[in-house]
Write a structure and sequence with these properties.
Elements: H1 3-85
Length: 86
């Protein structure tokens, strides 16, 4: 084997090794960044879920409040009519 072929094989092998190391390093960094982003997304989803639950509880109570207000208004009208009649 000639010296040129040996040098070419060694250079090619080292270049391949460099590409592999760079690829592994980049993959690790990207994985870590994706995990951080996923954690942030999960936190935001949890907060939004909490807010939706609060809103749903409020939305369920509104009809009850409206019904109570109607009853109160009716009682006030009855009291006013009673007072006018007295």
């Amino acid at each position: 084997m000639s010296d040129a072929v040996a040098v070419a094989l060694i250079s090619g092998g080292l270049a391949l090794l460099g590409v592999i190391i760079t690829s592994v390093s980049t993959s690790r960094r990207m994985t870590a960044q994706l995990e951080r982003n996923q954690a942030v997304t999960d936190t935001k989803i949890e907060e939004l879920t909490r807010e939706v639950r609060l809103h749903n509880n409020f939305a369920q109570r509104i009809p009850v409040i409206e019904r109570d207000i109607k009853v109160i208004n009716h009682r006030i009208d009855d009291l006013e009519n009673l007072h006018k009649g007295a």
